[in-house]
Write a structure and sequence with these properties.
Layout: H1 3-17, H2 24-50, E1 53-55, E2 61-63
Antiparallel strand pairs: 1-2
Helix pairs in contact: 1-2
């Protein structure tokens, strides 16, 4: 996600707190930008966890697995 989009999210958040509020179109834009931001964060986290290994006492590396997988 680009900084320009994050700045727009912040701009809309400030306007929502103001007495004038957001228009219907701005609310839809804010929801779409928030969803894109959340998807971006989750994608980055998943990528980081996919490259995470656990090292035991003997120095053996085990790839981190999803809960319930073996």
């Amino acid at each position: 996600m680009e900084q320009k989009q994050i700045d727009r999210i912040n701009e809309l958040a400030k306007k929502a707190k103001s007495p004038e509020g957001l228009t219907e179109w701005e609310e839809m834009e804010r929801a779409a930008l928030r969803r894109e931001y959340i998807d971006s964060v989750l994608g980055n986290l998943k990528g980081q966890l996919d490259n995470t290994y656990i090292v035991d006492e003997q120095g053996n590396k085990t790839k981190l697995q999803k809960k319930g997988e073996k």
